[in-house]
Amino acid sequence: MSAQSVELARPAAEAEEISDKVLFEISDWIDTETLARNILSELQWQGFKPTAENAREVWLSILSDLGDILSEGVKYASGLEE
């Protein structure tokens, strides 16, 4: 499993195609350096070495839970367009 190409399972029938324009717009504001810095800081704070391998393990763990996190985020977000 590549940390850079993990896709979450989605229902087979999607109501609409995801626009490349929207995808690229969102990709621009997802700050990977901030994510990396926070993972390394958390490793260090919890007493683990802030290494690339440890960070990768944490990131893969996050990705395995991301589908549930996204589902909950959408469920409880207010002001979403339908």
Helix content percent band: 55-70%
CA-based shape: elongated
Count of individual beta strands: 0
Radius of gyration: 15 Å
Low-confidence region ranges: none
Strand content: under 5%
In terms of structural class, how would the helical and strand content be classed?
Answer: mainly alpha
Tally the helices: 3
Q: What is the residue-mean pLDDT, rounded to a whole number? A: 84
Order of helices and strands: HHH
Distance between the amino and carboxyl termini: 33 Å
Task: Give the biggest beta sheet.
Answer: none
Brief characterization of the structure:
The chain is mainly alpha-helical and 82 residues long. It contains 3 helices and no strands.
Keywords:
82 residues; mainly alpha; 3 helices; 0% strand
Structure in words:
This protein is mostly helical and 82 residues long. It is 60% helix and 0% strand. Helix 2 packs across helix 3 (52-76).
